[in-house]
Here is the input.
Amino acid sequence: MKYCRFQWNGQAQYGLVEAVAGREMIVRILLTPPEESDGDVEGLRSRRIDAVALDDAELLAPVRPTKIVCVGRNYKAHAEELGHEIPTEPILFLKPNSALLAPGGVVRRPKISQRVDYEAELCIVIGKTCHHLAADEDVRPYILGYTCLNDVTTRDLQKKDGQWTRAKSFDTFCPVGPVVTDEIDPWAGVGVGTRVNGEVRQAGNTRDFLFPVDVVLRHTAQVMTLFPGDLIATGTPEGVGPVVAGDVMEVSVEGVGTLRNPVADE
Here is the structure.
């Protein structure tokens, strides 16, 4: 299943997305939010509508998480490009919900920062409450799907502070979307990348994760209870770099789509 969240007839709705004549279309309204399905998204009630092209819809962030968990340095080459040590277990940090931004929303560069970077990431969307998973337990039933996330970062403040909360928490610093899908397999390998103004800046693959999705999910669930709709951003490949006002960032995850966001100064 692939779904989005969009503005329709003055209300926020979840929409089922299907390919029609080679174009992604919103064909049904989901009458129950997917995060309330307890993992059974196929059983959700829905209502047919006149099809709306996904590209023409007023998209919203397709998720409403209680928290946004992120994994740092999950690609060896990215850790090396920043001069960091290679971690021996997942490094976790949080972004606030106030940083969430819809596809097409404007990322604002704060006045107090001289360098704002893009970071393309595959993002896990939790489907069922989980905590303290068994070592041999299959994590797939706890995953609702996957989406694109841009872990926007003030690189200068990250280096100055020594910890990452301020650098990654500004409003607009967590674009997510455009859809959530359960039709990809990160274990088999999924491309993750960024274009800025059409130029390729990042081109990674989840096969290069230091810590695959199951390890990340179990490690996180040892620390905190994950609720339906919560997000886990799985780390960014090498090639991070700065953007300036007027740039357009395009974060892509193979099988999910492309998350586009322009940049402006605060």
Observations:
- The two ends are 37 Å apart (CA to CA).
